[in-house]
Design brief:
heterodimer, A: mainly beta, five-stranded mixed sheet, globular, B: alpha/beta, three-stranded parallel sheet, 9 helices, 10 strands
Chain lengths: ~80, ~260
């Protein structure tokens, strides 16, 4: 899969992340989305449209218009 | 008997191929902050900690992260399904946890009633079967019913974790008979999970023959959590040693300890 990122393009797509609608730049991978959201470091897991987006494929899995994304991490719990 | 009695000093317990010297598993919820949490886990001598899986807070991506304080390099993380009320919720949560951390050892907890937080054992058993088929090693929070405990073991549970009392109640072990029966019958480790309030409760769990104790609120909600963590560590050790040493039989009447002859006259 080729990554066609064009930084000069300002087009955005609407997606839902953790229940909130957001506009994000077009052409982001999951990895790019995490960076865009400031989520660098730490262990997160991502669901795209109810399917796990495996960590090993974060850079290849592309975000598309209308996607529903869940991003979770470990927090304190009993 | 769920584990063989061992020599003093080499007493360990093994879950799904992982061996632990500490028989105290601690939660990571309800602490003032993650720093206190980490200090309590250290003071407890814990090697395994339970963790929850929740949505990242997107409005504050820089908020403190559990893993920066309680390191997965230092502690075995046991992801839980706390807050899940269906098998599907639980499986979804644990699949995400496995992807985030790369661990297959998990704690299954499917609740039924928001007031008592008692587990829904029908859903729990169903979720267990699905998780085992998906390659997870599942430590199962459950009711203190010996028959259900056996059903869980038959379904492939890596550990049976009966409640001593409702989660967060601190009431201590309400049904010692059942906990003892579960510990005697199980061939996988038995861990009392939930209900411990103070050190003697943890000691009783171990005296009944359990392999370990899991607690969160009893430490986190103490006025001095670090000191209570130490107390729990000692109580688990004391209860385990008492169990291994084989306690004296209970008697209905007094039996003098000193010789009952050769008194001066």
């Amino acid at each position: 899969m080729s990554k066609t990122k064009n930084p000069s393009m300002s087009k955005e797509i609407a997606i839902t992340i953790n229940g909130d609608e957001r506009n994000v730049p077009i052409g982001l991978s999951v990895e790019g989305l995490l960076a865009h959201l400031g989520l660098v470091g730490g262990k997160v897991a991502v669901e795209r449209n109810k399917e796990i987006a495996p960590r090993s494929q974060f850079s290849q899995t592309m975000i598309e218009q209308g996607d529903t994304i869940e991003i979770v991490r470990f927090v304190g719990g009993g | 008997m769920s584990t063989a009695k061992s020599e003093r000093g080499t007493d360990t317990f093994t879950v799904a191929g992982r061996t632990f010297a500490s028989r105290l598993i601690v939660g990571t919820g309800k602490y003032k902050d993650y720093a206190e949490n980490a200090a309590a886990a250290e003071a407890a001598g814990a090697e395994m900690v339970t963790v929850a899986v929740r949505r990242v807070n997107l409005t504050n991506p820089d908020e403190p992260m559990l893993v920066d304080y309680v390191s997965p390099d230092r502690f075995v993380f046991l992801p839980n399904t706390a807050g899940c009320f269906t098998g599907e919720d639980a499986i979804r949560t644990l699949r995400l946890a496995r992807d985030a951390g790369g661990w297959s050892l998990v704690k299954l907890e499917v609740l039924s009633d928001p007031d008592t937080l008692y587990p829904d054992m029908i859903e729990t058993l169903r979720a267990l079967e699905l998780l085992v088929a998906d390659g997870f090693d599942v430590m199962v929070y459950c009711s203190d019913d010996p028959v259900m405990a056996r059903r869980l073991e038959d379904a492939g549970a890596a550990a049976i974790m009966p409640l001593g009392a409702p989660i967060g109640s601190g009431l201590g072990i309400q049904n010692q008979l059942n906990i003892r029966l579960i510990a005697e019958e199980a061939k996988v480790p038995v861990v009392v999970d939930a209900g411990v309030g103070t050190a003697s409760d943890a000691a009783i769990a171990m005296e009944l023959g359990c392999d370990a104790v899991l607690m969160n609120t009893a430490i986190a909600a103490a006025k001095d959590p670090i000191r209570m963590a130490v107390a729990m560590k000692l109580a688990v050790q004391a209860g385990r040693e008492a169990y291994l040493s084989g306690r004296m039989p209970k008697k209905l009447y007094g039996a003098a300890s000193s010789p009952d002859a050769d008194f001066t006259t």
